[in-house]
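Mods, move this if it's the wrong board.
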Amino acid sequence: MSSTPLHRYRSHTCGSLDQKNIGQQARLSGWCHRIRDHGGLLFVDLRDHYGLTQIVIDPASPAFKDAESLRSEFVICVDGEVRQRPSGTENANLATGQVELVVSSIEVLGPAGDLPLPVFGDVEYPEETRLKYRFLDLRREKLHKNIMLRGQVIDSLRSRMKAGGFFEFQTPILTASSPEGARDYLVPSRVHPGKFYALPQAPQQFKQLLMVAGFDRYFQIAPCFRDEDARADRSPGEFYQLDIEMSFVEQKDVFEAVEPVLRGVFEEFGNGKRVTQSFPHITYADSMRWYGNDKPDLRIPIKMQDVSDVFRDSGFKVFARILDGDPKAQVWAIPAPTGGSRAFCDRMNSWAQGEGQPGLGYIFWKDGAGSGPIAKNIGAEKTEELRVALGLKDGDAAFFMAGLPEKFVKFAGAARVKVGTDLNLGDMDQFAFCWIVDFPMYEWNEDDKRVDFSHNPFSMPNFDREAFLKLGAADQETILNIKAFQYDVVCNGIELSSGAIRNHRPEVMKQAFALAGYGEDVLLEKFGGMYRAFQYGAPPHGGIAPGVDRIVMLLAEEPNIREVVLFPMNQKAEDLLMSAPSSATPKQLRELHIRLNIQD
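Not the wrong board. Structure tokens:
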């Protein structure tokens, strides 16, 4: 037995003892994860960051009296001898499961009061309790593993970027406000009364300026701040992204740089799930038409089709009238392989009504013929035409919706996923990636009755430069049809990132903003630094910024981003643990030259 003095708190971690340590003295420190009384013998699962070790306290031990006072989550230090567990009591699920520590002394390092939520087990607790006591929540095994996974993923992203020739830079946190699609978080300036900094919604302008400065390949694990409402896949307040920018590149160069990074990380941490090897390119228009949104879940193999021609002048007067009433109206079909029963079709119809729709028309094929109200109205010939067009057979079904696509497309996308999920048509054991490309540069702003940017104002228009510079307000139809060199990368129905080839030509940038109703004065005020920089020799450049939180959420197979963030806010953007946001003192307000005018 070694005579080397033991460390004050531990000679080993709670995840390191095994059979090679049998007969040795050991000292462990950790939390009392679970306490069990077996006929006088006390068993405690002692937990630290590294794992669990079972400790045993015999009634004859001088430590037994101290052990009787232990409660869940007490922090203790124990000394004892490592021994083989009795036959039949081994735990193959633990790294330390072949041994136990027979305790000779116990020191309580940190007693614990009654717990507001249990650490042992995986019991669901209200969000308010979990966030208020997040330090306890983080002790739970699943959440603890998620946070460790997050760190490993970031390490992997960083090493892969460096291996790809990218250099890591840190950009400012206090910067200027810019209209990038979300509300800014403003920070009042003490030394400049009445003026405000903004926390960056993204390092967009800075990373582009780095390209102008000649740094060529940049990346950063960047914090971003947006005053947005929470969603399952978006934290309120702040999030992190793998921010990337490259010089002298076209769209395909960005794809070729990013795909190996994402593919490699998902292969490394995806628990053996298949990962798309070559990400397909899907245009925005096709994605909306086939999948009903611009972030398709390709694990579900259903593609919607426009079947308007079959219903035009058909016996189904409801759809025929809709098509005749508006030249932009269409009829879309959702194929439903194996869904060919009245019971399933009726369930889908009821679901549609629960979603606020009047219903969901359907045809199902059985015994060589189509059935259902639509089939009866359009007749056997058109029903067969539909079956062939949709690639269906006996035992299959199809669902239909009619009207203006922009009004029903969201519902159509949800119905596609519902059909695929309920019929188990998806191959869910994979990470299915794709690029969405050719986004529209502009859209019609119905509220303000004007043309506006559709997405990213910094994107280069995919349009002849000389012709673009000649466009004016009278060319509205042409303007609304302009595509941008803009792209999203999507995985399993989650948008991981938007990116673009940037508009680096000042005269094109000026025109792009003018067509959206912004004069050069706005350009100078909001983006003056970048706009001026482009006048001194700017390289063609582009980039992207995959969301770290969403990547980890997918890899951890968590439905809510809260489960992969250390200290998230609640749905109201409140930090219940630190009581933020909080009121400022009168002195603080005076120093910042601020007077409150709170409206009831």
